[in-house]
Amino acid sequence: MAEFKVQMAKHPPHHSPLRPPSEHSKDRALKRLSSESNGTGESKAGSATPVELTALEESFRRFAIHGDTRATGKDMHGKNWSKLCKDCGIIDGRAITLTDVDIVFTKVKKKSCRTITFDQFKEALGELARKRFKDKTAEEAAEEVFKMVEGKSPIISGVTRAVASPTVSRLTDTTKFTGSHKERFDETGRGKGKAGRVEIVDTSGYVSGYKHAGTYEKKVKPPPKPV
Fold first, then answer.
1. What distance in Å separates the CA atoms of residue 81 and residue 149, rounded to the nearest whole number?
2. What are phi and psi of 116, to 5 degrees?
3. pLDDT tens, residue by residue, 112-150
4. Per-residue pLDDT tens digits for 64-110
């Protein structure tokens, strides 16, 4: 027993210092971010370069998430599909109309779905390309339409200006107010404040509306004595 204590004294057991839980959570977060940036999960060994999106797919995702905060960019509904065709100039009003765009969307999507995937999106563009560029082959027409979409983003329209209407002007004209509303404004249209909202009691002793109020005091009051 004494020899064992001597050996323990010469070779004390090595204990690594305990790390707080916050550091462990930081390490896990860093590993997760590094794996996501490399395009791999924690279960997969090694790292892989992330897949680069093409210009066509980037435009698809921009329009797919337009106006929808819950959209993932992996599929597109009919409203944004029509906006893409309009903003990118695919709809010309002659060969391609808004009706054609809606018909193609219904044709390529699944019956039970309301959206289209990127592959269905390319198929729909190919359908419109054959109608838009009839003098070219299917491949050449599709390339022309792809170029019209690549690098494009949704066009955000400007803020609508308010238009003065006769109804609003009539409702805000204080000269046409009646009843208690008329008493809240003076002849110039300015508000009277509290005097226009609350009936203030006159404690001067004169009858309401008496025009010569205060004249009696002036007559009875003796003139000031000369100094």
1. 12
2. -125, 150
3. 999 999 999 999 999 999 999 999 999 999 999 999 999
4. 999 888 899 999 999 999 999 999 999 998 999 999 999 999 999 99
Tokens 């029509």 sit at which residue? Answer: 82
What is the pTM assigned to this prediction? 0.49
| Alpha-carbon distances, residue 225 vs 87, 124, 218 (angstroms) | 91, 105, 15
